[in-house]
TrEMBL record, chain A:
Natural source organism: Streptantibioticus ferralitis
Protein's name in the database: Amino acid ABC transporter permease
InterPro entries assigned: AA_ABC_transptr_permease_3TM, ArtM/GltK/GlnP/TcyL/YhdX-like, MetI-like, MetI-like_sf
One Pfam family from the record: BPD_transp_1
Family to which the UniProt record says this protein belongs: Belongs to the binding-protein-dependent transport system permease family.
TrEMBL record, chain B:
Span of domain ABC transmembrane type-1: 15-204
Keywords carried by this UniProt record: Amino-acid transport, Cell membrane, Membrane, Transmembrane, Transmembrane helix, Transport
Subcellular location: Cell membrane
A Pfam family assignment: BPD_transp_1
Keyword DNA damage applies: no
InterPro entries in UniProt: AA_ABC_transptr_permease_3TM, ArtM/GltK/GlnP/TcyL/YhdX-like, MetI-like, MetI-like_sf
Protein known as: Amino acid ABC transporter permease
PROSITE patterns recorded: ABC_TM1
Transmembrane annotation, as ranges: 15-42, 185-207
UniProtKB/TrEMBL annotation, chain C:
Protein name, UniProt field: Glutamate ABC transporter substrate-binding protein
Lineage of the species this protein comes from: Bacteria, Bacillati, Actinomycetota, Actinomycetes, Kitasatosporales
Ranges of residues in domain Solute-binding protein family 3/N-terminal: 70-294
Family: Belongs to the bacterial solute-binding protein 3 family.
Region of interest (Disordered), residue spans: 22-48
SUPFAM superfamilies: Periplasmic binding protein-like II (SSF53850)
Matching SMART domains: PBPb
Keywords carried by this UniProt record: Signal, Transport
PANTHER family, per database record: ABC TRANSPORTER GLUTAMINE-BINDING PROTEIN GLNH, AMINO ACID ABC TRANSPORTER PERMEASE
């Protein structure tokens, strides 16, 4: 149901009322933005000297290094979590009870644990910051991806499995040629949403001094003193923009894939899986 | 020496801290999320744009960065002296509200079209349609995803531990600095989180049963 | 839809390229670290340390460093005049950094073979005991609790806990005037635990970095920052028109060099190196070129505790 169904095409009276709401709403929002901008302006946060630091080659290099470190951790964790997710999903769908139990226990345990604590413990017990971060992200997101894969496989209509068995296929064949291709296609948007989460969560690396983007930003902000004090506000704005741009690019990829999937009608019609995507993203 | 028994007061303090922080942020996120969701489906374009921008910005920013904004930027915009608990609650609440909004919106989308059409043909206004017909039905479908969101919120609340809120993660750090074995502490902290998250899923399963209707 | 995706992609590309290429970038450093003394005279230069050659020791840590070809030293990154990293040049400056260079020189590593690694206070014991760093020089107070996990060489400096407040604050005069004031320090640090004592009645704020605390002080979120005077003087010297140190130390914080527990050979070598540079005047020169810039004259280095 699209939003348009919730209300009638407005008549003259409703149009007038909506215009009043629109003006009031716009005014309220603009007032809020103006308040924030003016307050920051009043504290001198938009003065040239607060933003000057971004013109220095060394600081640009620093932020770029942070960005590369973030992407490096993300790339490894993304691949790792997809592989682990596939393995655990296979485990949970196994015919052997023991395998199923182990996989379920692993998935439930790591999903119930805050990622921050997992990363901290990995770091404090054995691993170097980079590996603690990558391993933590892999374990946690792998378990979430496992549930996504499993939901995808379960969402393929039963008839498909039954037909495949009736043709004399073995279980591995049914999985590999019938269920998984359809599951992946229908769950792709959710899988990519979870990858966006993985990307965002690389920022937890700052707590164990892994020098990623947020860490670089914090260092730049705390070690530069301008006439107006520490440039936390400019740095937060710049770093935030970079994160949002990266996540939006990844989400745009998800939307593009979803549209492509919808165009081809060969397999299961990919369900938008919006509710799942939403939930996965928050984790 | 036993970490749990020696430092029971610390653990209890952290446990209560996490529970309270989660509960207050949950209320804020549900209220904000509902308001923003209403904005996103409303007939007034500026409100729709506001809703979309809110959700897009908050969903794509790392929570850690939001915490930095709350702790280092917000006091400059508002006034100095805001308590760290309040700042943590606003960061967590705003972040989660974006997801709550999207969950509610997809819940609204799951209510059959005819329902809203019938409501409109009875002459109901937008707010009546939403309040009396659509949201009560949407609530049932969104209970499970909201439950998962609240569990995610519990886990995300750990970040507040690095910003002067006494919750479980802060106590874990403190104990590990005192010199206890990190793995020993970890077992108890993990158990505490498991207790909270299982309690939340049980609560939401109960809600689901209560609200279930034969269709 | 299409437009939104394109716009997002364009934004991303723009942001990335502007960060990567940086239109018309300046070299050098924004006015981060004043290079002049308190009275405006040009800063004294940090000394050069004679590098020893052919050092052999029965120390697993040193052997590991020698086979690696470089020494990895843990340090702080956000303490002006002590352990400070210039974010644009990537160089480290400060008294602790100089101490690390002296020690490195006596172990056979010239300054360019020393790699500094930032380790926050909360992770120090972990980093040292795991061998993530060969040793740690960063405002590290020697105490018995820490001695259970790691060993200490030194002390090489005697600091004391003090308070940093806004320049115009006259109500905070010492630890006894902190009743119901907000005081910030680092999670798990010695000063934090001390100021948490009920007798002071302060409301304690624990954050991850001292610069976070100083930022909160500037914003009026807290009334004071407390930690060792050496650290606070660095900040006061960085922003002399806004911040001041109260100047009534209420503890003794002997700074030591943290190293792997029971590496007796390395500990002995580091103690010898400290003594050597204290006697030949390097220690004082290093102080004058760093912490001395805050206007406080050098103390007599505390006696080294060999245990």
């Amino acid at each position: 149901m699209s939003a348009g169904v919730l209300f009638d095409a407005p008549g003259p009276k409703a149009r007038r009322r909506n215009r009043i709401y629109a003006v009031a709403g716009t005014a309220a929002i603009l007032a809020l933005i103006a308040f924030v901008v003016l307050r920051l302006q009043g504290k001198g946060q938009f003065a040239g000297y607060m933003w000057d630091l971004f013109q220095y080659a060394g600081i640009q290099q620093r932020i770029e290094d942070g960005l590369v470190a973030t992407l490096k951790a993300f790339a490894l964790a993304a691949v790792g979590s997809l592989v682990l997710g596939a393995l655990l999903a296979a485990g949970r769908l196994s015919d052997h009870r023991a395998v199923r139990w182990v996989a379920t226990a692993v998935v439930e345990f790591f999903r119930a644990l805050p990622l921050l604590i997992l990363i901290f413990v990995l770091y404090a017990s054995v691993f170097a910051p980079f590996w603690a971060l990558v391993l933590g992200l892999t374990l946690y997101n792998g378990c979430v991806q496992a549930e996504v894969f499993r939901a995808g496989v379960n969402a393929v209509p039963r008839g498909q499995t039954e037909a495949a068995y009736a043709l004399g296929m073995r279980k591995s064949q049914v999985m590999a040629t019938v269920l998984i291709p359809q599951a992946v296609r229908s769950m792709l948007p959710t899988i990519i949403s979870q990858l966006v989460v993985t990307l965002k969560d690389t920022s937890l690396g700052f707590i164990i001094t892994y020098e990623e983007l947020l860490y670089a930003g914090r260092l730049v902000a705390s070690n530069t003193v301008t006439r107006g004090g520490y440039p936390y506000v400019p740095v937060v704005i710049v770093i935030g923009t970079v994160y949002i741009a990266m996540c939006l690019a990844l989400s745009a990829l998800a939307q593009w894939i979803e549209r492509r999937g919808r165009r081809s009608r060969k397999g299961v019609v990919p369900v938008p899986a919006e509710a799942d995507a939403v939930v996965a993203q928050a984790e | 020496m036993n970490v749990l028994l020696d430092n029971f007061a610390l653990f209890r303090h952290g446990f209560i801290g996490t529970v309270v922080l989660t509960a207050v942020s949950a209320v804020l996120s549900l209220v904000l999320g509902t308001l923003v969701a209403a904005c996103r489906v409303s007939p007034v374009p500026p409100l729709r744009i506001f809703g979309t921008v809110w959700v897009t910005l908050l969903r794509n920013t790392p929570l850690t960065l939001l915490f930095m904004i709350a702790v280092f930027v917000a006091p400059q915009i508002l006034f100095p002296g805001i308590s760290y608990f309040t700042l943590a609650v606003s960061a967590l609440g705003c972040y989660t509200s974006a997801f709550v909004c999207e969950a509610l919106r997809s819940g609204v989308n799951s209510v059959p079209l005819g329902q809203a059409e019938a409501a409109r043909s009875l002459g109901m206004t937008f707010s009546q349609t939403l309040r009396l017909i659509v949201l009560p039905q949407a609530t049932r479908t969104v209970i499970p995803p909201i439950g998962s969101l609240m569990i995610a919120l519990t886990k995300n609340s750990a970040i507040a531990g690095s910003f002067n809120v006494a919750e479980l993660f802060a106590q874990q750090k403190r104990l590990s600095e005192i010199g206890y074995n990190i793995l020993e502490i970890f077992v108890w902290i993990a158990l505490a989180y498991l207790v909270i998250t299982f309690a939340i899923s049980a609560l939401f399963r109960l809600l689901e049963h209560r609200l279930a209707v034969a269709r | 839809m299409k437009f939104r995706a394109a716009a997002a992609a364009a934004t991303a590309v723009l942001a990335l390229t502007s960060v990567a290429t940086g239109c018309s970038s300046k070299s050098g450093t924004p006015d981060a670290n004043p290079a002049t003394g308190a009275n405006g005279s040009p800063a004294p230069k940090t000394p050069q340390y004679a590098v020893k050659s052919g050092v052999t020791l029965d120390s697993a840590t040193l052997k590991r460093a020698q086979s690696r070809g470089k020494l990895i030293v843990g340090a702080k990154a956000d303490q002006p005049f002590l352990g400070f990293e210039d974010p644009s040049a990537g160089t480290r400056t400060g008294f602790d950094i100089e101490i690390a260079k002296m020690l490195g020189a006596d172990l056979g590593f010239p300054a360019d073979k020393i790699e500094f690694k930032t380790v926050d206070s909360a992770n120090r014991e972990t980093a040292v005991s795991k061998g993530e760093v060969d040793f740690y020089v960063g405002t590290y107070t020697i105490n018995d609790q820490r001695k259970k996990q790691i060993s200490f060489a030194g002390p090489y400096y005697l600091a004391g806990q003090d308070l940093l407040v806004a320049k115009d604050n006259s109500s905070i005069t010492g630890p006894d005037s902190l009743k119901s004031k907000k005081v910030c320090s680092i999670t798990g640090s010695t000063p934090l635990n001390r100021i948490s004592d009920k007798k002071y009645g302060a409301s304690v704020v624990a954050l991850g970095k001292y610069s976070d605390c100083v930022k909160q002080l500037e914003d009026g979120q807290v009334d004071a920052v407390t930690t060792d005077d050496a650290i606070l003087k660095g900040y006061a010297a960085q922003m002399p028109e806004r911040l001041k140190v109260v100047g009534k130390p209420f503890s003794q914080e002997p700074y030591g060099v943290g190293l792997a527990k029971d590496d007796k050979a390395l500990r002995g070598a580091l103690d010898d190196a400290l003594k050597n540079h204290e006697d030949n005047g390097d220690w004082k020169k290093a102080y004058d070129a760093t912490l001395g810039l805050s206007g406080t004259p050098a103390q007599t280095p505390p006696p080294i505790e060999r245990y």
